[in-house]
Amino acid sequence: MNLTLPKKQASKKADSDSPSQARHIRRVLFSWLFTWDIYLILLVAGFLRLFALNTSEFDADQATIFSMAREAVQHGLLPIVSIRSSIGIEHSPAAIYPLMIPAAISADPLWATVMIGL
Description:
mainly alpha, 5 helices
């Protein structure tokens, strides 16, 4: 009884095709930079995500997480725990870390909403 697998012989054709396939994929992705459709879609999507940000919902959960991020920035401490949400699910402290960026800029939670919207 042999427990080892036989060695596969490397195909020369597979090795020669991979660089050309990579070039083809790169060429297709690069060609997207010159199509105006993509820019129109990104512009409309950005407008719709940022439209009427001042009317976005900001509950006690989001306020507590943002205040924890603001305190972490002010005091220079990284939180290791987070809050229990209103529906009973525990948030990880990873929910606080991205919000530390807008909290460092301003105490206004609108900038956190902008960052999450983008």
